[in-house]
């Protein structure tokens, strides 16, 4: 297909009509080829694309440009939306356009600026929910690809990341297929919920026709109570023992993909696991504090291991070989035994609480959006998950959804775009 004005117009109309035929609505609908045609040359989509008030400088672009996507290593922010999409683009060209458009929107939204004026006869180019000037608001947008994207539709079978597969059901899971897997993943995070929803609404508008929401769950990170690591709905601090990925050697060993038989395009990316975990808080609230703490292996008030006094104290497992102080089947001991043999299975955890109100039986529907990143799914997440099989905590949590994705390498500069190395 040529890039003539008529061809571009046909492409826009085709993307819009496909979105309408698929029944893409205001909640689900996020799809893409429509405004993307001009993005093939790296330029903004016509008319509907907000334009920053000034040329973005290094400080503005620092949140978006780089060898890796910024949202992977940034600590959990107060608000998030996690979405999985089915790609409805017809072919590889339209998929390319979709990723161009997604990049342009993410670049603008994370940098901030003034939406483009379209005149009094056209609809506004921005929802206006953040006011006339869109603030960057420390927004991050992290994009991943699922195993299903590498089927026959786009000629990508030979480019699938070596370890990417469909997430299996593990012991103690109760997976709902409607809340699992997807072609693409998108996580938006910011200090404020309105910035997350504004970004989601903007992306939905500009990508209509190319992808459709498969599932979505919003979450939040609680403020430290009273200090240190935020708490989950079970009242315990969540994510205390993350590896220090600010250390380049640690990040290269545990987080970033490079070599190891992987396709060359994956360098700089990371395997992303999402687990949607309901917490049965009504039952949990009836459990004694002693039993709760022994299930976790930590004190509920301070977060300290049961053989320590401070949150970040290292458990002294060699001095407690029988588990008299920290039980052998406690969560922290099974998840991270802290041995030389298990050190290489550590992963970077990003957890968010969620609240979906009440279920049909009148019980609270709350839980955790567990997101983690690693270099190798089998060596890290799956090894840890198998160690946790049958732990006492499984009586109070119920994983019901999520998936495996590969978080794409970063966008290095203004001429680059998400998925360029995959699709070039």
Automatic annotation (TrEMBL):
Compositionally biased residues, Low complexity: 43-59
Renumbered residue ranges of the record's region Disordered: 43-69, 300-320
Compartments reported by the entry: Cell envelope
Matches recorded under InterPro entries: Dimeric_a/b-barrel, Dyp_perox_C, Dyp_perox_N, Dyp_peroxidase, EfeB/EfeN, TAT_signal
Chief place of localization: other
Catalytic activity: heme b + 2 H(+) = protoporphyrin IX + Fe(2+)
Source organism superkingdom: Bacteria
Domain Dyp-type peroxidase C-terminal: 229-411
Domain Dyp-type peroxidase N-terminal span(s) in chain numbering: 69-220
Enzymatic class: oxidoreductase
One of the protein's GO biological processes: iron import into cell
Cofactor(s) this protein cannot do without: heme b
Enzyme Commission number: 1.11.1.-
SUPFAM superfamilies: Dimeric alpha+beta barrel
Keywords on record: Heme, Iron, Lyase, Metal-binding, Oxidoreductase, Peroxidase, Signal
Protein family: Belongs to the DyP-type peroxidase family.
Name the UniProt record assigns to this protein: Deferrochelatase
Source species: Actinacidiphila rubida
Lineage: Bacteria, Bacillati, Actinomycetota, Actinomycetes, Kitasatosporales
């Amino acid at each position: 297909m040529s890039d003539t004005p008529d061809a571009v117009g046909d492409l826009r109309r085709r993307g819009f009509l496909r979105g309408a035929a698929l029944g893409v609505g205001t909640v689900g609908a996020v799809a893409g080829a429509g405004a993307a045609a001009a993005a093939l040359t790296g330029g903004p989509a016509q008319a509907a694309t907000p334009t920053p008030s000034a040329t973005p400088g290094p400080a503005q672009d620092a949140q978006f440009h780089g060898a890796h996507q910024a949202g992977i290593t940034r600590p959990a922010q107060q608000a998030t939306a996690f979405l999985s999409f089915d790609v409805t683009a017809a072919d590889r060209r339209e998929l390319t356009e979709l990723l161009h458009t997604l990049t342009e929107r993410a670049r603008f939204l994370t940098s901030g600026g003034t939406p483009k004026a379209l005149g009094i006869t056209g609809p506004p180019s921005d929802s206006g929910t953040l006011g006339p000037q869109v603030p960057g608001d420390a927004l991050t947008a992290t994009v991943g690809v699922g195993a299903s994207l590498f089927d026959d539709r786009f000629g990508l079978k030979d480019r699938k990341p070596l370890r990417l597969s469909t997430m299996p059901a593990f012991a103690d899971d109760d997976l709902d297929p409607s809340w699992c897997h997807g072609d693409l993943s998108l996580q938006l995070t910011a200090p404020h919920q309105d910035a997350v929803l504004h970004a989601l609404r903007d992306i939905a508008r500009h990508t209509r026709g190319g992808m459709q929401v498969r599932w979505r769950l919003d979450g939040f990170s609680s403020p430290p109570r009273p200090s240190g690591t935020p708490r989950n709905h079970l009242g315990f601090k969540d994510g205390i023992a993350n590896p220090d990925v600010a250390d380049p050697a640690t990040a290269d060993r545990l987080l970033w993909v490079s070599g190891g038989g992987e396709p060359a395009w994956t360098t700089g990316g990371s395997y992303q696991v999402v687990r949607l975990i309901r917490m049965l808080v009504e039952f949990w609230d009836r459990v004694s504090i002693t039993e709760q703490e022994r299930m976790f292996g930590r004190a509920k008030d301070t977060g300290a291991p049961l053989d320590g006094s401070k949150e970040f104290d290292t458990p002294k497992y060699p001095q407690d070989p029988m588990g008299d102080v920290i039980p052998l089947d406690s969560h922290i001991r099974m998840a991270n035994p802290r041995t030389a043999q298990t050190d290489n299975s550590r992963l970077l955890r990003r957890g968010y609480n969620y609240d979906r109100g009440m279920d049909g039986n009148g019980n609270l529907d709350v839980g955790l959006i567990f997101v983690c990143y690693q270099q190798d799914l089998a060596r890290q997440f799956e090894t840890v998950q198998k160690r946790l099989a049958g732990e006492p905590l499984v009586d109070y949590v119920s994983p019901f959804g999520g998936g495996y994705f590969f978080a794409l390498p970063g966008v290095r500069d203004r001429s680059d775009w998400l998925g360029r190395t995959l699709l070039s």
